TrEMBL record:
Family according to the record: Belongs to the peptidase C56 family.
Name of the protein in its database record: Type 1 glutamine amidotransferase domain-containing protein
Domain of life: Bacteria
CDD domains linked: GATase1_PfpI_like
Keyword list, A-Z: Glutamine amidotransferase
InterPro entries found in the cross-reference section: C56_PfpI-like, Class_I_gatase-like, DJ-1/PfpI
Amino acid sequence: MAEQSVSGKTIAFLVSTEGIEQAELTGPWEAVKEAGGTPVLLSTESGEVQAFNHLDKADTFPVDRVVDDVSVDDFDGLVLPGGAPNGDLLRTFEGAVSFVKQFVEAGKPTAVICHAPWVLVEADVVRGKQVTSWPSLQTDLRNAGGEWVDQEVVVDGNLVTSRQPDDIPAFNREFLALVAGAA
């Protein structure tokens, strides 16, 4: 598949303050940049966020904007990187959950990987959708009304989901295609 251009598009990357799986942040971030888009790091607080390589601390990244200070209208796409602590913390922050709910309900391209689908569950936006995630979330997603499948990437409407860092190439490809095709 040819590289999708997302030139002129602004993509929000929403994370908590810590526990982000670094590869699931940096892989899609670089793909957005390489395709001509502008990634913006959103978090629940200003300052820096702490990424991890599984259980080991990795790099920190500066927050561009606080989620409570932005609008869904400011962005053309949304990425929710995984990491168990990240997904768990993010789903407890009302502003983040509200932002995700509004984004999905607006029909904008949304890409969610690994443990980040917990935020989709909290936002009540998986009902009737086919999704995937890290396997330990499958019961939560089914209980929220989603149809969980074990595939590297699942696209249902404008929602892209994947399981783990190994799935990032497929995750990026499908998300960029949605963003490129969005009006």
